[in-house]
From TrEMBL:
<dbReference type="Pfam" id="PF17723">
    <property type="entry name" value="RHH_8"/>
</dbReference>
<dbReference type="InterPro" id="IPR041088">
    <property type="entry name" value="RHH_8"/>
</dbReference>
<protein>
    <submittedName>
        <fullName>CopG family transcriptional regulator</fullName>
    </submittedName>
</protein>
<dbReference type="GO" id="GO:0006355">
    <property type="term" value="P:regulation of DNA-templated transcription"/>
</dbReference>
<dbReference type="InterPro" id="IPR010985">
    <property type="entry name" value="Ribbon_hlx_hlx"/>
</dbReference>
Length: 137
């Protein structure tokens, strides 16, 4: 099943919240004030990308070993209905974002999704998330 055929609105980023010590925050502000970075977010994103680059081989090996799908994968009502017709049960394993269409009912999700493992974020209605709670790993 190709889950990339229909995509929801673009999701470029996910908001996260972090707590930093005052000294770390002060050092970040100093670098921003000195013009090394345009703002705090720019420095934090750069630091994260540098760390991800440092560990890129580990990420690639783990993705392959765990059979994770990389990127954004959208599961439409039509995708799940096709799986139901074919008698398939989906084992969703995504590194990035898995998105289940808002018009997917809890009943359809239960009938077609065996398990969900997402490293990143899962977008689905609260009814679908509640119904699948025991299947979200």
């Amino acid at each position: 099943m190709d889950t990339r055929e229909v995509r929801p609105k673009n999701y470029d980023s996910e908001k996260i919240t972090i707590n930093l010590g005052l000294i770390d925050l002060g050092q970040i502000d100093l670098l921003v004030n000195e013009g090394f970075y345009s703002n705090r977010t720019d420095l934090i994103r750069t630091a994260i990308r540098n760390q991800l680059g440092t560990h890129a081989d580990v990420v690639k090996q783990t993705v392959a070993r765990r059979s994770l799908v990389l990127g954004l994968h959208y599961y439409s009502k039509a995708n799940l209905e096709a799986a139901l017709q074919a008698g398939e049960r989906l084992q969703i394993q995504v590194l990035g974002m898995a998105s289940i269409a808002p018009d997917v009912t809890a009943e359809l999700a239960l009938a077609t999704i065996e398990s969900i493992f997402v490293l990143g974020t899962l977008h689905a209605s609260s009814a679908v998330k509640t119904a699948l709670a025991s299947r979200i790993l």
